[in-house]
Each structure stands twice: as structure tokens, then as C-alpha cells.
């Protein structure tokens, strides 16, 4: 029976690792979106200065 408990623990650890990877991907996507928004704001400011 103890090997079943070990297996359950390993499965739990793998699930936690998967969650961490998903969180990292979400954070990267959010950072990319923020960078794009900043770039758009900068372009708008440049256009206002030109106009």
C-alpha cells in the first residue's frame, strides 16, 4: 500500500508543476499585453505631437 501513497504524491507534484507552468505563461502574456499597450500609448503621443 505504501507504493500507492508514493504514486499519489508524485501525481500531486506533477499537477502542481503544471499549474506553475500555466501561471508563468499567463504572467508572460500579461507582460506582453502591457508592453503592447505602452507602445500604443507612445505612438499616440508622437502622433499628437506631430499634429
From TrEMBL:
Compositional bias of kind Basic and acidic residues: 1-13
Region (Disordered): 1-51
Compositional bias of kind Acidic residues: 14-51
Domain of life: Eukaryota
Protein name as catalogued: Uncharacterized protein
Organism: Octopus bimaculoides
Amino acid at each position: 500500500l505504501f507504493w500507492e501513497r508514493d504514486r499519489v504524491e508524485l501525481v500531486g507534484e506533477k499537477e502542481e508543476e503544471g499549474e506553475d507552468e500555466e501561471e508563468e505563461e499567463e504572467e508572460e502574456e500579461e507582460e506582453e499585453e502591457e508592453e503592447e499597450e505602452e507602445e500604443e500609448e507612445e505612438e499616440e503621443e508622437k502622433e499628437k505631437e506631430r499634429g
